Amino acid sequence: MPEYIEKAENLSLPVVMLEGTVAFPSVKISFEVVDENSLAAAKAAADTNSFVLLVAAKEIGNTEAAPEDLYKIGTVAKIKQSLKTPDGTLRLIVEGYSRASILQYRQTDDYYVADAICKTVVLKDNGGVKGEALMREAISALEEVVHFLPAVSQDILLAAKGIYNVGLLADFIASNVLIKHDDKQMVLECFDPFTRLETLLMLLEKEAVILRCESDIQRQVRERLNKNQKDFYLREQIKVIQEELGDDADSEEKEYKSRIVKTKMPSEVKEKLLKENEKAAKMPFGSAEANVIRNHIDICLELPWEKKTNDRVDIAKAKKILDADHDGLEKVKERILEFLAVKQLAPDLKNQILCLVGPPGVGKTSIASSIAHAMNRKYVRVSLGGVRDEADIRGHRKTYVASMPGRIMTAMSRAGVNNPLILLDEIDKLTRDAHGDPSSALLEVLDAEQNKSFRDHFIEFPFDLSDCLFIATANSYEGIPRPLLDRMEVIELKIYTKREKLEIAKNHLIPKQMKRHGLTKRSFKITDDALVEIVDFYTREAGVRNLEREIASLCRKAAKALVETEKKSVTVTSKDVEKYLGVRKLLPERISDENEVGAVNGLAYTELGGDMLKIEVAILDGTGKIETTGSLGDVMQESAKIAVSLVRSLAAEYGIPTDFYKTKDIHIHAPQGAVPKDGPSAGVTMTTALVSALTGRPVRRDIAMTGEISLRGNVLAIGGLKEKTMAAYTAGVKKVLIPEANMRDLAEIDPLARENLVFVPCRKISDVLSEALLPTTETKARETLTAEKLPQISNEIHTNSITANLSTKGR
Ligand code: ADP
C-alpha cells in the first residue's frame, strides 16, 4: 500500500472563472479574464497580493457563468503578472499552488468568494516501483501523442522527462497536452496522484487512438489528391505532346466525322456513329473507353453496308468457267446453273442454300470458289470446325475487353461487298457448350426472314445478309444440326473412282502444280502408269488431296533436277516413282497364295473407298460359345449370329454334325483388329467361312463376296458396290459374288473393274457356297496359278488396262 502525506486547510478566496481551460498546481498558465466578476476578483487579489481560486466553467463559451455553472473543484493560484491588452481586456499569468474543493460560493459587492478546503496529497517515496512504472508508461504514451501532434513541441516531452513526481507529471502533461477542457478537469479532480496519473494515461491512450485514425485518414486523402494531381498533370502533358505532333483529339474527331459522313451506310447507323464520335471526343484523350468506341466506329466503317458486285447472268459463260475448273461434279454444276437461271427470271427469290456433303478432298471447297468465280461474286470462307460458342458466330458485346465481331460479320468485312458467296466450311463440325448454341445463331444467318437484319452483338446495328449466297460443306450428314439440315438443299459428292482420279490428275492437278512450280509441257511429263502407281501405292483416300500433294512433291523434285543437271526435261514413269517419292507407302490387301479353309475374302465400304476385308473362322472343341473379335460393330455381330443359326439349319445338307453348336466353340475374326468395322454386308462371307471351317472344304482364293444374309438363307442387296468392286480388282480377285438384286448397279461401277472381273449374281446362300467352296480332295488340283505368279500377272493387267482406257478418252 502506498503511503500518502496529506495537507489540508480551510480558505476563503476570490473566484476567477476560467473559460475553456483548467489551471493545475505547480503549472504556470496565461489566460484572459472574460467576465466582470472575475475581473473584479483578480483586481482585488492583485491589490492585496493574495491568492485567487481559479475555477473552470462547465461549458465553453459561457462568459456570464453563475456559481452553479462552475465546477466544484478548482486551483488555488497566485497571480504572477497582469497585463492590460489594447482592447481593454485583462491577461493574467498565474501559477497554481494546490487543489481546492469548494464548499460554497458567496456574493460580495463586485465578485464571488468561495469557501473551500485546500488540499495537497503527496506520495511517500514518489509511489515506489508502481510510481516509476506509471511514469514511464506516461512518458511513452506522451511520445506517441507528440509524434502525431506536431503542435506539441519536443520541449514539452523533454520537460516531462525531467519531472520525477507522479502527481506533478500528471498535472504537467494534462495542462500542456490534453486538448479538451473537461478531460483536464477530470485530471484536476483526482487528489490521489496514482489515480491522477492513471486517469491521464487512459486519456492519452484515447487521444493516441484518435490521432492515429486521423492520421490514416489524412494520409489517404493526401494520396488521393496526389494521384488526381498526377493524372491531371499527365493528361495535360499528353495533350501538349499530341498538339505538338499535330494529332490532337480535335483533329481525330474531325477525321472520324468526315469518314462517317463520306461512307455510304443507312442514315440511322450514320447518326448513331456520329453521336458515338462526339461522345468519344468528350472523354479524356487516349482513355480506354474512348478507344473502345473508336474501335467500334472503325469496324462499322469497314463494313460493306451498300457495296455490291453485279451477278453474271450469262449461263453459257458460267458453265464454261465451272467446266474449266473441275472435272465431273455434274450434279453440283447443274444445280448452280439452275440457280443462275432462276435468279435471272426471279431476281428476288432468296434463301437457296446449298450444302455439299462428301468425304475430304472431293472438291467441295474448290467448287464453291469456282461457283463464286462463275457468278462474279466475291468468295469468303468461314471455317466452322470446332466452333462451339454462340459468340463465335454473333460476336461479343463491345464492352468486353478485346471483343470482336463474330465470324459472319468479319467475313463480310473481308469480302468488302454485301453479296458475297460465303462458304460455311465443315458445318458438321459445330459443337455446343454452356455459352449458347452456335447452330441457332447460324440458323438466323441462313433464314431469309431474319437475315435481312442480322444483329451482331459487337456491331449492334442490323445488317442485311439477304443478298449473300451461302454454301455449306460437310463430310457427313450425321454431324449437321437437324434444323440447319432442313433448311439446306443437300448435294452429295461421291468418292472418286480410280479412273476419275486419274482424269482429274491429268486435266487439273498436274497442270495446276506444273504451273505453280514453273514447269512446262516440254520440260516435265508424268506417264499414266506413274500416276496409277501413285494412286494405288502412295495415296489411299476418297478424294484427291493427297494425290495432289504427291504430284506437287514430284514437281518440286523435277524442278530441282532440271536446275541441278544439264537435263532439258524430266519424265516420270512408274519405275521412277519410288526414286522421287520413296518406297511404296501402302500395300493394298491382296488375295492369299493358297485356297484356305475357314478364310474368305469379303468386301467392305469405308469412307476412304472400298476395302477387301477377310473373315476367318476357327472351330474348336468346346461348349457352343460364339466369340467375335476384330472390332466388330453391333450390326456385324448380329450378322455373325444369323450366320451361325443359318448354318445350323443347313448342317445336314452340307454334312456338318448337327450338334456342332453344342460341342464346338466358334471364333469369328476380322483381321486388322484395331480398325472398327460394321454393317450387314459381311453376312454371306461369315456364313461361307463357317461352312468351310465346319466341313473342312477350302474356299477359292480368287473369289470375293459381299451380301447381307437372312435367316432363311436369302442373299440381300448391299451398298457401295462401286467401291467394293474396285477394291476386289485391286486385290487381284477374279470373280465377285454379289446379291442378285445388285446386278443393275453394275452399270455404274468403274469400267476397269467391270472389264476385269467376273460377276456372279447370288439369290440364295447355296449359290454362294457352290461357287466359293472347293471339294475337300481337290484343294491342290484346282489351283491353276502359282502363288508367286499371280500378283505379277494381275499387276500387269491392271496397269495395261488403265493405260488403254485412258488413251481412249476423248474419242
Ligand atoms: P474438300 O473441300 O472436299 O475437302 P478440296 O476442294 O480442298 O476438297 O479439294 C482438294 C483439291 O482437289 C483441290 O485442289 C481441288 O481443286 C482438287 N479437286 C477435287 N475435285 C476436283 C475435280 N473434280 N476437278 C478438279 N480438281 C478437283
C-alpha Rg (nearest Å): 54 Å
What structural category characterises the helix and strand content? alpha/beta
Shape: elongated
Oligomerization state of this entry? single chain
Strand fraction band?
A: 15-25%
Q: Helical content, roughly?
A: 40-55%
Mean pLDDT: 84
How are the strands ordered across the major sheet? Answer: 18-19-17-16-20-23-24
Tally of helical runs:
27
Keywords:
single chain, 811 residues, alpha/beta, five-stranded mixed beta barrel, 27 helices, 24 strands, binds adenosine-5'-diphosphate
Task: Give the topology, please.
Blueprint: E1 4-18, E2 28-33, H1 36-48, E3 51-56, E4 73-84, E5 90-107, E6 112-123, H2 128-148, H3 154-161, H4 166-177, H5 181-188, H6 193-245, H7 249-262, H8 267-282, H9 288-302, H10 315-325, H11 330-345, E7 354-357, H12 364-375, E8 379-383, H13 390-394, H14 407-415, E9 421-425, H15 438-446, E10 454-455, E11 462-463, E12 469-474, H16 482-487, E13 489-492, H17 498-516, E14 524-526, H18 528-537, H19 545-564, E15 570-572, H20 574-581, E16 599-606, E17 609-621, E18 626-629, H21 634-650, H22 660-663, E19 664-669, H23 683-695, E20 703-705, E21 708-709, E22 715-716, H24 721-731, E23 735-739, H25 751-756, E24 758-762, H26 765-772, H27 789-807
Parallel strand pairs: 1-3, 7-12, 7-13, 8-9, 9-12, 14-15, 16-20, 18-19, 20-23, 23-24
Antiparallel strand pairs: 1-6, 2-5, 3-4, 4-5, 5-6, 10-11, 16-17, 17-19, 21-22
The structure holds adenosine-5'-diphosphate.
Adenosine-5'-diphosphate is lined by residues 326-329, 358, 360-366, 473, 504, 508, 543-545, 548.
